[in-house]
Amino acid sequence: MPHIAIIGSGPAGYYTAEAAQKKWGEDAHIDVFDRLPVPYGLIRAGVAPDHQSIKAVSRRYEKTALTDTVRFIGNISVGTDVSIGELQEFYDAVILATGAPNDRPLDLPGGDCANVIGSAAMVGWYNGHPEFAELDPDLSGRNAVVIGMGNVALDVARILSKAPTEFEGSDIVAHALTALADSSIETVTILGRRGPHQIMMTPKELGELMHLEQAIPRVDKRDLPPEDDDAILEPGLRKSVNHLRSFAAIPESIHGEKPRAIEFDFFASPKAIVGSDGVATAVEVERTRIEAGRAIGTGETYTIPADLVLSCIGYRTSPIDGVPYDARAGKFANSDGRILPGLYCVGWARRGPSGTIGTNRPDGYDVIDRVVEDIGSASRKQGGAGFDTLAAERSLEVVRFSDWKKIEDAELAAARDGAPREKFVDIERMIAATKD
Fold first, then answer.
1. Phi–psi pair at 307, nearest 5 degrees
2. Looking at 275, 296, 315, which one is the last position of a domain?
């Protein structure tokens, strides 16, 4: 049976491992690599900490990981510790499931101000990703502006607006919980270039805003299209727009009953970050109109106060030496998942950052079908044994799934009251936990 290397242990990686396991059964040889000592990628570090029901999908991945046919190889950076070319020498197929961990750049004047932060960094900060644990965003101002109209923008706005008690049951990390409890932010403005009919926010996430303890959502009725126009929308988007209509119907008289507000500013295209001494103070915005589905500037501009700016405009896959990359699309250059002979990609690394977590399952099964078409079922390589020899020669500290379970046990034991775990936010502590 072929030896398969999957680079990335998030949803795309483990759905692909599941597909390979079902294709080849007990004779499968599947190694799942991750640069961190902990698995699950987006589930651990990207899904909002107050969405524990979504994070529960990791139990499915654990079931796959605990089989004899799948190995977790953590704490290994592909492209640094081992090259793609070396992995191709060991494995019959190498499948990149690295996701899209980098922010699309905010290409605006003033975008380099100190308090302008990308969503990957912000989400990583409150989720305890080691790369962003020391971000320390300045929450001492009154106004935050979130650029983007997708679920990530909504998550960031919601997390900024919640009361400390509303994080009970979440796995938000301690440093973020403390900082948010001391936050002075009163208004979070969500900017979108287009209108309510073009949002990418899903109904469940929008509906949560109606139940926040200390924040109230606001929509200007004038931004809403005629209600009859909603009939042409697909059902999910129609439900989302219904939520926006509910927000707009909240009487002005009760807007002041809660200390915080989440303002939706539609038809608003950011043009520049206004700042002083390298610190943002406002966002300059141009009013837009929609023509053939596109946002067209009207020339009318205004500014919104901004003590913190969060850019939630999409993600990009990290390039890897030796792998063709589509810089414009921010993903690996591929044809239906094929990159080069014996080299494939799946999930966001293949499609770009689109779809839900579940979208990665059929994607994983599809790429395994292509592997079978290309190489069949006969093994031509030495597989994991070859990597193990190289790792020993280079003194690489490999973290196995059994080691991860020790890390997990330590995090569970360290949980504060009402929380499922307290994540380790630095790699050294993770590694140390594997020694206990």
1. -90, -15
2. 315
- Give tens-digit pLDDT for 108-131: 999 999 999 999 999 999 999 999
Residue type, 216: I
Interacting residues of 379 by C-beta distance below 8 A, sequence separation 6+: 1, 2, 3, 29, 92
pLDDT at position 170, please?
Answer: 97
Number of domains observed in the structure of the chain: 2
Same domain, yes or no, for 145 and 49? no
At 10, is the pLDDT very low, low, confident or very high (cuts 50, 70, 90)? Answer: very high
Q: What pTM does this model have?
A: 0.94
How far, in Å, CA of 415 to CA of 219, rounded? 38
Give yes or no for a contact between 411 and 421, defined as CB atoms under 8 angstroms apart: yes
State which residues form the domain around 88: 3-101+317-435
Question: What CATH number has the domain bearing residue 30?
Answer: 3.40.50.720
327 and 422 share one domain: yes
CB atoms closer than 10 angstroms to residue 332: 26
Longest dimension (CA), the chain: 72
Concatenated DSSP letters of 272-340? EEEEETTEEEEEEEEEEEEETTEEEEEEEEEEEE-SEEEE-S-EEPPP-TTS-EETTTTEE--BTTEEE
89 and 124 in a single domain? The answer is: no
Task: Give the Cα separation of 105 and 315 in Å (integer).
Answer: 9
The CB density around residue 354, as the number of other CB atoms within 10 Å, is 11
pLDDT confidence band for 254 (50 / 70 / 90): confident
For 234-264, the DSSP string reads -HHHHHHHHHHHHHHTS-GGGGGGSSEEEEE
pLDDT at 1: 81
